[in-house]
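Recall the central idea of this unit: under ordinary conditions, the amino acid sequence of a chain determines the structure it adopts. In this exercise we apply that idea directly, starting from the sequence alone.
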Amino acid sequence: MVKLSFTAEYAGLLLLLNGLMILVFLYSRKKKKKRVMQFGNYETLKKVAGGSFLRSDDLMLIARVLAVTTLLIGLSSPVIIQEVMGADSDFVLVIDSSSSMFTSDVEPNRFQAAKDVSRNFVGQLGNSSSVGVISYAGGVNEETELTGELSTVRSSIGDISIGDTGGTATGDAVSAGVTMLTGSERPGTVILITDGRNTVGQNLSESADYAQRQNITVNSIGIGGTQNSTQEDFGIVQGNNASRMEFPNLNRDGLSNLSRSTGGESVFVSNRAGLEEAFVQLEKEEAQNDISKWFFLLAGTMIVLETVLRTTDIQVIP
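Accordingly, the structure predicted from this sequence is:
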C-alpha cells in the first residue's frame, strides 16, 4: 500500500492566500470590464475576440493558486509511505528440517510450506538486503552464507532436505544465525521456523543471551498443531493473546522468551495461510520517501508560467 502524508501546519495559510487571490482576481476582472466598456461595446468586443479574450487571466489565476498550493505542500514535509519487506535489515532464515516437519497438517507438509513461504519472502525483499540460510535437525547446516544474491538464496532454500541427525538443535541453530549476522553493518534479524522443542545443544536462554549481546533480533514462528484439529480452530496467535489453541510439541514459552528478550516477536500458526501472514506481520516495514523537492519544482514551474502569461502580449484586451 502506498500513501501520501504531510503535515497540516500550513492548511490555514493555504486557504487564506488562495481565497485572497480569488477575491482579488474577481475584483480585478470587474474593474477591467468597466474599463473596457468606457472605450467601446463590451459585447461586441467579446464577439470579435471569440468570447475568450480574458481567458489568459483565468490561466494566470490557476497558475498562482497551484504555485501557492504546491509551495505550501512542499513546506509541509510531504512523504510517500510504502510498505516494504525488511527495507533496512539483513536476515538469516533458520529452518527446522527435523523429521517432524514432514507432518502433513500444513499443506503439503510443514517443511515444504516453510520453504515455499521463505522463498516468497526473499523474493519480496529489496536489493539492499542480504540473506543467509541455515537448516537444522540434531546438527546445524549452513546452506547459504550472508549474501545479496537473492536468487541464489531462493535456490538454496529450495534445495534444503531433511536433516540426517536425530534431535532438534534450535538453540545452536539460532546462535549460528546470530554469528552469521555479526559482520553485517545493517540491523540483523534471525527468522526461526520450527515445529518442535529444543532437544540437543545449547538451550534457548543461552542463544537469547548471545543474540542480545550481538544486538540481533530473533523473530520466531512456531508451526503445526494437532492432526485431528480443523483449520477453523486455529489462526495466528501472538504473545499474551496466544490462548486459542495448544501446540503440544512446541516450547511456546521458550520461543516467546527468546524473541521478546531480543526485541522480536513470536507467532504461532497452524496452516499455510497463517504461515504466510506471519512473515508479513513480523517483517513488513514502512519506508518513507521525502518528495518535497518535487512540489517545490512544480511551484517554481507555476511561477514561471504565470510570469510568462503576465508579461506576454497574449491578451486581446490588456
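The chain is about 45% helix and 20% strand.
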